[in-house]
Write a structure and sequence with these properties.
Layout (H helix, E strand, L loop, with lengths): L4 H12 L5 H11 L5 E2 H8 L3 H14 L3 E3 L11 E4 L5
Antiparallel strand pairs: 1-3, 2-3
Length: 90
Amino acid sequence: PHLTPELLSLAKPARLKARLPAAEMQSVVLSLCENSWLTAKDLAALLNRDAENLQGRILAGLVKKKLLVLRFPDVPNRPDQAYRTAASNS
């Protein structure tokens, strides 16, 4: 639903490469989550990745580093959990 041309453009580096260094993938995810809440499924669709893998390998680490915040912090495993950059949350 949120797959706007702007978001697709930001996700392009990850869409074009099957393997992307973790730091580069994290950077792309942070730029995508800057202005809107995105679920793991939204991000997976934008990045052409598996949602569970993305969640475990990238999103969880960014949340742990407090670079991403959870939309529903009291229920981290909520199916419609969404992410946003910590800076844009305020």
